[in-house]
Design brief:
Layout (H helix, E strand, L loop, with lengths): L1 E11 L11 E12 L12 E14 L2 E14 L4 E8 L2 E10 L4 E10 L2 E14 L2 E13 L7 E11 L1
Antiparallel strand pairs: 1-2, 3-4, 3-10, 4-5, 5-6, 6-7, 7-8, 8-9, 9-10
Length: 165
C-alpha cells in the first residue's frame, strides 16, 4: 500500500531567475514515499493504533554529507486525534513528542533532541494511508535543524513510512 525509494535531478537556472540566478541545484538520492491517502471518513473515532516503520534521509553535518536511517513509532489516539511520537534518526532519539491531526488526514509534529551539546529540532509532516479501504499506515516527510554552527552545524531531510501494527 506504500512505496518508497530514491530519485535525482539537476536544475540549471538562467541569470534572470528569481531563485538562484545563474546557479544549479543537483539532487542525488533524494527520497520519496507514495501511496493512496486515507479519507477522513476512514479515520476511526475511538481507540488507538500503533504505527511502526523507518526513516531515511540526507544529512549535512559540518563538511560531511551522507545518508542516514532511523526508526519511527507513532502511537495514535483516535479519540483525541493525536499521537505520541518516538523516533531515532542518525543516532539521536526524539521521543514523547505529540503529533496532532490537521486538515483531513494530515498530521504534524515537532520535537527536539540533544546530541553532544547541540539541540536538534525534528519537524514532521505526514498523513494516513489506506489499503483495502482501511487505514493501514502513515507516511510523510521530515527535516532536522540544529543550533550548531560551522563544523558543528547539522541539517537533514527525508521521508518516513510506517505500517499499522
Amino acid at each position: 500500500f506504500l512505496t518508497w525509494g530514491w530519485w535525482g535531478g539537476d536544475v540549471a537556472y538562467d541569470n534572470t531567475a528569481a531563485y538562484n540566478p545563474g546557479g544549479r541545484d543537483r539532487l542525488s538520492f533524494a527520497t520519496y514515499v507514495a501511496g493512496t491517502l486515507a479519507t477522513a471518513a476512514q479515520l476511526p473515532n475511538t481507540g488507538s493504533a500503533t504505527f511502526k516503520g523507518h526513516m531515511v534521509g540526507n544529512v549535512q553535518a559540518g563538511n560531511n554529507a551522507y545518508i542516514a536511517v532511523g526508526s519511527y513509532t507513532n502511537t495514535w489516539n483516535w479519540g483525541s486525534s493525536n499521537g505520541t511520537l518516538n523516533v531515532t534518526f542518525d543516532g539521536a532519539t526524539y521521543n514523547t513528542a505529540t503529533t496532532t491531526l490537521g486538515t483531513g488526514v494530515q498530521f504534524s509534529g515537532r520535537t527536539t533532541a540533544t546530541v553532544s551539546g547541540d539541540t536538534r529540532t525534528l519537524n514532521l509532516n505526514g498523513a494516513f494511508f489506506q489499503s483495502n479501504n482501511a487505514v493501514a499506515g502513515q507516511a510523510g516527510n521530515f527535516n532536522v535543524t540544529s543550533t550548531g554552527t560551522g563544523s558543528n552545524a547539522y541539517k537533514a531531510a527525508g521521508t518516513f513510512a510506517a505500517q499499522k501494527q
